[in-house]
Amino acid sequence: MSEKSENSETPGTPTPSGTPPGPQPEPIRFFGTTWVDHDGGYGLRRVGVAVGSLATAVAACFVLRFAFQGLEIAEVGSLVGMLVIVMFAICSAIAFRKTWEGFGARPKDPAREDTLRGLKSIGFIGSLLAYFFRSFIEAPGEKLRRAEYESARAQFEKRRSSRTGNPAARKRPKRR
């Protein structure tokens, strides 16, 4: 059996690992690449994400309730208690909105997203609820990834079809 280098393979043939040439789909958390053809337990995974994110959000609400009871036991006052409730509500609303927007478009300013990371981690219940509601529509982020993948495939096919054969196989003109 002779070994071939990667560059000597015929264009358009699958690589030895079995992956076709061209752009590959980007995996989505909890779904991998099953979102491409909706196979490999895609429907069950969506149900699992919905149930898991809702159960985690409910558990987180109980933990926050215990923390609030700790503030009441410490008798810090009603103003501090209200500030904590308002802070978690606002942070959860912002986290929900930013997570939901992230399912449809890449962030325009990644540096701004990094600065909001702390706020989004405080409002993690909002992010969990965004996952819960989005999983009723699609795998969270599927629409964005599908548009990017189909665009990359179309560009790859356009580039590939515009070529006329293997350039290495062409005869070179004789130099004088």
Tell me what the structure shows.
There is one protein chain. The protein is mainly alpha-helical. 59% of the residues lie in helices and 0% in strands. The protein is built from six helices and no strands. Helix 1 runs antiparallel to helix 5 and helix 2 packs parallel to helix 5.
Total count of helical runs of at least 4 residues: 6
Principal-axis shape:
elongated
Unreliable stretches (pLDDT < 50, length at least 5) are: 1-13
Derived structural class = mainly alpha
Notable traits:
176 residues; mainly alpha; 6 helices; elongated
Outline:
Helix content is 59%, strand content 0%.
Write the layout of secondary structure elements.
Elements: H1 42-73, H2 78-102, H3 110-115, H4 117-122, H5 124-137, H6 142-162
Helix pairs in contact: 1-5, 2-5
